[in-house]
Structures are given as C-alpha cells and as structure tokens.
Amino acid sequence: MTATQPRTRTAEEIGRTETGPRPLPALGRTRDVPLPDVTTATLPNGLRILAAHRPGVPMVEVLLRIPAAGPSATADPAYTAGMEVLVETMLTGTATRDRVGIDDELAAVGGELGVGVDPEWLQAGGSALASGLPVVLDVLADVLTGATHPDDEVARERGRLAERIAVARAQPRTVAREALQRKRFGDHPISSEMPTAEAVAGITAERVRELHADTVVPDGARLVLVGDIDPDTAIESVRARLGGWTGSHPARELSDAPAVVPGDLELVHRPGSVQSQLRLTAPGVVRDDPRYTAFQLANLVFGGYFSSRWMENIREDKGYTYGAHSSQEFVPGGAVLGVDTDVASDVTAAALLETRYELGRMAAVPPTPEEIESARRYAIGSLLISLDSQSALAGTLSVLDSVGLGVDWLRDRPARLEEVTVEQVADAACDFFAPTRFTGVIVGDADVIGPRLRALGGIAQEGRA
Amino acid sequence: MSVTDVEPAALELHRATLSNGLRVLIAPDPTTPVVGVSVHVDVGFRSEPEGRTGFAHLFEHLMFQGSESLEKLAHFRHVQASGGVFNGSTHQDYTDYFEVLPGAALERALFLEADRLRAPKLTVENLRNQVDVVKEEIRLNVQNRPYGGFPWILLPPVLYDTFPNAHNGYGDFSELEQATLEDAASFFDTFYAPGNALLTIHGDVAEHGVDGVLALVERHFGDIPFRPTPQRPSFAEPVPGSERRQSVPDAHAPLPAMAIGYRVPDPTTEPDAYLAHAMLASVLTDGEAARLQRRLVHADGLVTDVSASNGLMGGPLDARDPDTFTITAVHPADVEPDRVLGAVDDELDRLAAQGPSAEELSRQSARWASALHREDDRVMFRMLGLGARELLYGRAELALELPERLAALRPEQIAGAAGRLRGAGRAVLLVEPAAQPDQEETP
C-alpha cells in the first residue's frame, strides 16, 4: 500500500451510476390538519377569550392583542412615540412588582412575556411551562391593570429607544419598509410603524400613563391560550384575574387603509449601498373574497415559494439575488400584495426588467396545470407544517378571530385548495399580477443604479434614505 | 411540583449503520402529522482548504442543483410539490441538509436525499450561478447592513491563530470566484462518503414503523458504494495567554459595538464544565434580572443591549473543540469600551468568588427547560438538534437531556466557569462606526 491518496473522481464520473436514473416514489395520502376544538368566552368587560388544548410539549402560549389605533386620522409621530415608550416600560413596574420582580416571577415558571405595538395592535405575548399558567396570568393582569411606568424607567427607556431606532434605521430593509409604507399609504396612520428619536425624546412618564389608561382596555381585546391546558379551567383562570379589568371606552380600531394606487416606482438614494432593495406592491385579496384561494395559488406560482417562476428566473437562472419573495399582508379594509428582493447594484435594472417580465407573463402566459398542482400540494402540506406548534396555532387563531373567522375556516382550507380550478387560478393570475397594478420603491445607491433604471422607464423622482 | 421535575420528552431513538457506513437515527413521534428527514455531513467550514474560504458553504448550495435522477431545480420542486419545506446550513464542523413534509411523503424525501448523496450533478454552469447567489447572500447578510458578520466572522480571527479556526466561513469573493469544478468533485469524494454522514428521520413514520423505515432507508441509500472516510484533524490550538484587541470599521453602523471572546472547555471530554458556561451565559444576560442586564443596561446605562452565548453561532453544543464563549454589546459613542470591559470583569469576579444563588440558577434552568421545549415543539428544530448532537458527540440523547443536565449544575460550577474566563486570555473586538459625511448632507 502506498502513501498516495486514491484518485478522486471527476464531476462527470460522480454524477453517473451504472444503474442510471431512478423513478420518484409516489406519495401516500396526506393526513388532515389535526386541529383542536377552540373554546371561546367573552367577559362582561368585553375581553374575548379563546382556549385550545394542544399538548405535545408541556407548555402554554398566551397571546393578548388589543386594537390600539391613535385618535388621529393621519399619521401622528407623537402617538407612535408614546405607544413605543409605553410598551418598553410596561413590564418595568407595578404597585407590587418591580422590573426584576416581574422577570423573576416569570422565570420561575419558565415564562417569558413580551410587549409590542404596531399601528393597528398592542400585543402582549408569552409562554411558560403549562403548570405556570396561573403565574403568567397573575403577572399579565398586574401589568395590564397596574403598570406604573416609573419616571426613571421611562427616562432610561427613552434613551435606549433612541439608540435602537438609530440601529434599525441603518438597516436597508427598514429604510425600504418605511419608504414603501409611505408610498402606498401616504399619511394614513398605518404608515407610522417606527417613531423618530426626536418624538421619543418628548414623551413624559405622565403622558405614557395617560396613553396606558386610554389604550390598554378590555373591550375589543382578545386573549388566546393554546397548550397543554384544559380550556375551561384556563378560561375560568382568566376570568378570575381579568374580570375586574376596566376601561372607559372600547379599544380603538384602525380606519381602513387607502387602496394602493398603481404608478411609477420611487427611487430612494442610499449612498454607498452595494445592494438595492426592490419593493413592488399592488392591491391584494381579502380572505372572504371568492377569488382568495385562486389568488393564493397564483401567488405561489409567481414568487410565493422557492419553486416559483420569479425565484427560478432571478436566482437559479441569473444569479441576481439570494432570495425573491411575494406575499400578502392584511390591512384594515383590505390586503396588499408585496414583491420583494435584494440584488447587487450592478444588476438592479436587470432584476427589475425580469420582475416586470415575470409579472407580465402571469397575465400573458397563464400558470400551467403542473405549476398549479405543485402550488396546491405545497399550500396544503405547508399548512399542516405551519400549524404544527402551539405558538403558530395561537397566532393564527388570534388573527383569524379578529376578522371573524374560526378554526373551521382552517379545517376547510385543504378542501378549498383542492377545489380551485386551473381556469380560476389563470384568471386570478391575470387579474392580480398584471404589471399595470403595481407601484413601489427601489432603495440603493442612485448614482450607480439610477441611469439604467431611468432608461427602463416608470421611475419617479428620487428621494433620500 | 417544581418545574425542573418535568419529565424529559419520551422519545425513542433507534440507530442503525448500513454496510456502506451510513449512520441512521430514527426517532418516531406519533403526535405529529409531519416528518423530517435530514442528512448531517461531517464537514464544516473549519475543514475547507486554504485558498478556498467559503467552499463548504458554496458546496452546500451545489448539492441542491440536481443529481443523476433529478434535473436542476427538480429537488426544490419535488419537495415543495409534496407539501414540504427544505433548507441546508453550514456550521463550523458540519453541514446539514433537511426537509420537513407531510408523513405521506417520507419515502420521496428519502429518495431525494439518497440521490444527491449518491450522484450529485456538479456542473460549471451551476457552480458559476451559485457563486453569484452566494455573493448576493454575503452582500445581504454582511456587506450592505450594519454589524454584518458580527461577531461570528469578525471575532474568530482575533481569538484564534490557525486557518481552520480563524478564517471567514462565508469566504472571500476572490476565492469563491476561483473555485473550480475539480475542487467540487474532490470535496465531494473526500467528505461526502456515506460513512462521513448521518441520516436522521423524526416525526410521523405512519404505517411503516421503525423496521419499515429502515427497510426504505436500505432500499434508497443501501447501494451507495462504500468510500473511505477522511481522517478528521484536530483543530486544537493554545488558549491565548493575554488579551488581544482589534478594531474594525463599519460603514453602516450608527453606534459602536464590542464582542468579547473566550475559549471554553472541550464539550466532549468535559461536558459539565462546558455546560456550566452555557448556564453562565444565561446568568449574565438572559432576562431583566440577569447580572449584566442589571449592571450594564439598567444601573450604569453603559450599553443599549447586551447578550452572551456559549457557542459562536448562537447556541451550545453546535461544534467540537475548540469552541467560543461570546459577550456582545452595542453602546453609545461616548462610552469607552474599557468601562464596559471593567464592569464585565467585576461581575465575573463576583460570580467567581460567590457564585450565583440557588434561586438564580433554578430560574435560569426553568427558562432553559421551557425554551428547549418550545424549540422541540417544531419537528424541524428537534430533528436538527438530535442529528447535530449525534454527529458531533455520538449522543443524540444530549439534546433530550439538556434541560436536566443544566438544571443539575451547582453554583460552584458556574463560579468555576466565571473564574476560568477571568484566568485566561481573551479577544476583544471593537466595531467602530465609519464616518459617512455624504449621508448627513441634504441634496
């Protein structure tokens, strides 16, 4: 035996065996989505409760969402800033617990609780070992009804927020998101997702306490509990702790967002960028629209999963991007379709050209039966996978309930996906993906990407990041 | 009941080794309708050749580009058209490939994984295309964003001296561009031998049962010919004897950041001493009551955010020796890094001298238990946890025992870990915002 390594094979030798290519095994029958029954109750103070038994791990998920729109009909930086400071200080003190006390009590039952806010909702969510549910509810009730927002904590969190906002705004995706929201929603409050450091600096502890009394109210709020729990016992446990929670008025719901108006793309200059963010958008389709399921499959065919036309074109064929995704966001009164990718500066115009080409192709060259069948199987299978955890189920139940849909709507999803016809998907592809329906933004170094983009047309006057 | 009495998830682990050397781990879970299939290959970016940084990750991309039975794009299409999701990832010591699908697609998943492990189609066209895609991935995650590659790319060259431990696992553009088809063929033949891989199946095995699954595995993987497995070198190198510092500019960062890197005990030979560092990380930064949160964020107001982790890529037990303990923080420009370091040293000294309280430890172990349960609530994460521990340490059980082992740690072991960090050298990486006058001007 010699010391030399055996010769390694060539790429061509590696890719071939004596027996040759083999056939793909058939699929078995996909099981139904196993969904638990959901028990619901509404307390006299207006709080709605949904509880479901989903064992698997000895945990419980807790998710409270309160509609939390501002009183103004237009974006109000001071309101956005106030709500952001409110959620940052909500877990820092009550009459009986300080910041560390709250954290210690939750930790003892393996618990976590977080609070967040967006233009539509204030959200408090967490998890714990199932046996710790009473403790989590105790702490939650205490902060909802008795958070004091101590002066020194407000002062400290204002400073940290200013720094975090600076870090967030340095992220290209944040720059692109803010530009996109302004582009499609103008000064509707839904466009105000992140406050300015300046507005945050002007928020006093007194103002935060006023906002808490005004927005943290039970009427219109919804609490979802999913886990290794008995639903009836869990609901009684909530009733005992949150039955006395009061508010002077119902929670404020966000007004309908304006419809997306088709038009030119706005070029936003971010000096020194080596990559550009393409963010195209068009009106979407609400869940109770009869064309919703057909739209969902058309979206998968276009760019909603890896095996989509757009991804296969600009990533796997051209190598312009690491990822390209199209998806829907639901907004009050409707939905918006978003088409997102990040690409190198020198291929930005080329990527836009291919994107417009693929959008046009959705109308001109309808999805084939094979494309639709693949999307259909993926939609059914990924539904099974996406609901296979307590946290995902809790989130989905909460969102559906807020638009008046229950767990039966989820149970019937596979059947509705099976029933959609090729013609219906082709019609949805033409109706919803036609390039004439879109507008959007492109963020990047305008000195580098501007000339070629403008040569393509449909590019509006630029702004600055 | 105290929370640490929660029974570990009852999960049966079945092992087998095929005659070609492929190791198989089967962990049925009848409570879920989905099944996961993963292949962990015993090669990560520490094993890639000098002059070919980023090659292990680039090769991971190539494994999705077709095989003898499947054209380019077919792998993605078959997984997704079966209702499944897929991905792969490259770590220091291993590369994983995985898919999660409805249980009905189990055999199809085995076929897909076997086909590319047997005969991947490596072509120049796919290589060039995936070099472009990987460059976009690096632009997205590193070059075009603030704190890109912090700390996993930036810290190792300060803490380590040898190429395997110190180099950039994402790779330099010039070296990625020089990669050849011969490099790819040689990498596959060397490292992707069946005896260098582990196949894990977890979740809904339906009517097949364990024996039936094993028969399917034999049918699809059994005729992949045996090849010798590579000798795995030691990546050991001496612990630095003093502090090493390095500053790097960041064109996009609005605030300075720092990362402190330490070496930790060998997880294979000293598992409890290693895990004591994982618990130490929690005692330092997990939750509002954690030592460095209270000291650095709330009492002294020195940093905006701070976190600690045993493991360079986010979690413990994800690499063999040598492994890294990191503390990272973002801080205002007017705070001198030495003030942060001084406060960290103070807290480590205090822990080394007095240890954490028993209550502090029990709270952190309850938090670990629930975080691990929550992760295990998804077939994908539990499967990847089992597979990685089986490949790296030969004990998938570690993934299931982790909550108990962390809960069994005593205060003096945590004190020992803190003292160990104080007793040796370390790396300090400073990320400095680079001036961007252009961005401040109005047009």
UniProtKB/TrEMBL annotation, chain A:
Domain Peptidase M16 N-terminal positions: 74-192
Molecular function terms, GO-annotated: metal ion binding
Pfam family for this entry, one: Peptidase_M16
Domain Peptidase M16 C-terminal: start-end pairs: 203-377
Lineage: superkingdom: Bacteria
Region entry Disordered, spans: 1-37
InterPro entries named among the record's database cross-references: Metalloenz_LuxS/M16 (IPR011249), MPP/UQCRC_Complex (IPR050361), Pept_M16_N (IPR011765), Peptidase_M16_C (IPR007863)
The protein, known as: Putative Zn-dependent peptidase
Species annotation: Pseudonocardia sediminis
UniProtKB/TrEMBL annotation, chain B:
Keyword Transferase: no
Record-annotated Peptidase M16 N-terminal domain positions: 23-139
Domain Peptidase M16 C-terminal: from-to ranges: 179-364
Family to which this protein belongs: Belongs to the peptidase M16 family.
GO biological process: proteolysis
Keyword Protease listed: yes
Gene3D superfamilies in UniProt: Metalloenzyme, LuxS/M16 peptidase-like
Name of the molecule in the record: Putative Zn-dependent peptidase
InterPro entries per UniProt: Metalloenz_LuxS/M16, Pept_M16_N, Peptidase_M16, Peptidase_M16_C
GO MF, one annotated term: metal ion binding
Keyword annotations of the record: Hydrolase, Metalloprotease, Protease, Zinc
Region of interest: Disordered: 227-249
Alphabetical list of Pfam families matching this protein: Peptidase_M16 (PF00675), Peptidase_M16_C (PF05193)
